[in-house]
Amino acid sequence: QKEVEQDPGPLSVPEGAIVSLNCTYSNSAFQYFMWYRQYSRKGPELLMYTYSSGNKEDGRFTAQVDKSSKYISLFIRDSQPSDSATYLCAMSVSGAGGTSYGKLTFGQGTILTVHP
Amino acid sequence: DSGVTQTPKHLITATGQRVTLRCSPRSGDLSVYWYQQSLDQGLQFLIQYYNGEERAKGNILERFSAQQFPDLHSELNLSSLELGDSALYFCASSLEDTQYFGPGTRLTVL
Is B9 exposed, middle or buried (0-12, 13-18, 19+ CB in 10 A)? Predict the structure, then answer.
């Protein structure tokens, strides 16, 4: 069983819809949670970063972490065709700062298409 | 643009060959990470360097090696290449708690 599970989709939604992306994990030592967006043939781009349980909002994006259920989510409001990409959740035991061991463990990624 | 640069963008080579991938981290970042992305395995951590020292190893094959130089750029060396090594190779750099990824090098082994 993989440490991080993510439904690969694909997920297709109309423009303006609310998108919900989810990951579950098995390693209770994970403390840092991230969402990356990856366009085709490009490098992953950091979207959201959270350390604790709860919600974090940034514009149209909201990240949720539920450590008790080992479950994280990313919500995209008012989705746009430009949001079409692969969304990757990532987690680490420690932060990447200083001499910390900041290895990221990724989910498989969910392919999202937002059609006009 | 994340500020992390990788060269070359594409690399096509034959089985049994050796290649070197190069990464320049964001200005001021001391940590460099290497990841491999393939269709079946997803993004997998290979190795981390911090200020020139190896910090952590992941699922890196013995045929692969890396180093970080005094100017903090890093190189990933892949030798005795096999068809299965064809993948996207990313490096990322960090100073604080988040990693920023470069555009990647696409390696094709024929």
Answer: exposed
Do B32 and B72 touch, CB atoms closer than 8 A?
yes
Residue A32, token pair as written in the block: 């840092």
Whole-number average pLDDT of chain B: 94
Whether A87 has its CB under 8 Å from any CB of chain B: the answer is no
Least Cα separation, residue A15 to chain B (angstroms): 26
pLDDT in tens, chain A (116 residues): 789 999 888 999 999 999 999 999 999 988 889 999 999 989 999 999 888 788 899 999 999 999 999 999 999 999 999 999 999 999 988 755 544 567 899 999 999 999 99
Candidates A31, A104, A105, A111: best to mutate against B (most CBs of B within 10 A) is A104
**Residues B60, B48: Cα–Cα separation, whole Å:** 11
* Residues in chain A closer than 8 A to B42 (CB atoms): 106-109
Q: Report the pLDDT value the prediction gives residue A97, as an integer from 0 to 100.
A: 53
CB-CB under 8 Å, A106 with B96: no
The CA distance from A110 to A107, in Å, is 9
Q: Does A78 touch chain B (CB under 8 A)?
A: no
